Amino acid sequence: MTTTPTPPPPPAADAVLEALAEVLEVRRHADADDSYVAALHHKGLNRILEKVGEEATETLLAAKDAGYENDAAKRQALVAETADLWFHSLVMLSHLGLDHRPVMDELARRFGVSGHAEKAARTGA
Ligand SMILES: N=c1c2ncn([C@@H]3O[C@H](COP(=O)(O)OP(=O)(O)OP(=O)(O)O)[C@@H](O)[C@H]3O)c2ncn1[C@@H]1O[C@H](COP(=O)(O)O)[C@@H](O)[C@H]1O
């Protein structure tokens, strides 16, 4: 009798990006038949960018649909679409030899810097 292996428990929320980065790195070199991520890498950069574009469009449509209503199903749909967008963005970074870490570093560098102040420093406005 064959038994289905139990999937590993998901990592704690703050460790998800680190754990996912490790999985994505391994999957870059996996067999396309065994892995959705590997299949994307095999299809190449243009297909990955198409997916990012599709997921961005689906995210903004879900946001429009959710609007300011407090509809739990619509809000959950928006969360799911945003997760798809973030996931495919991470695959894009991985395909180009990057990961979430420099993005997090960039957000950290910007933390506490007002967008208005940053723009004024950049444009002299
Ligand atoms: N987080 C995700 C994740 N989020 C979304 N997806 C997949 O992204 C795809 C989204 O595509 P669409 O909704 O556009 O639907 P689709 O028609 O199936 O996709 P296409 O045929 O158009 O490419 C679905 O197949 C989802 O399953 C993900 N696939 C994988 N992961 C993570 O990546 C890991 C490695 O995955 P594999 O490479 O498949 O082992 C997994 O363990 C997860 O942790």
UniProtKB/TrEMBL annotation:
E.C. code: 3.6.1.31
Subcellular location: Cytoplasm
Catalysed reactions listed for this entry: 1-(5-phospho-beta-D-ribosyl)-ATP + H2O = 1-(5-phospho-beta-D-ribosyl)-5'-AMP + diphosphate + H(+)
Pathway membership, UniProt: Amino-acid biosynthesis; L-histidine biosynthesis; L-histidine from 5-phospho-alpha-D-ribose 1-diphosphate: step 2/9
Keywords noted in UniProt: Amino-acid biosynthesis, ATP-binding, Cytoplasm, Histidine biosynthesis, Hydrolase, Nucleotide-binding
CDD domains from the UniProt entry: NTP-PPase_HisIE_like
SUPFAM superfamilies assigned: all-alpha NTP pyrophosphatases
Taxonomic superkingdom: Bacteria
Principal location class: cytoplasm
Any one Gene Ontology molecular-function term assigned to this protein's record: phosphoribosyl-ATP diphosphatase activity
InterPro entries: HisE (IPR008179), PRib-ATP_PPHydrolase-like (IPR021130)
Protein name listed in UniProt: Phosphoribosyl-ATP pyrophosphatase
Organism of origin: Halomonas piscis
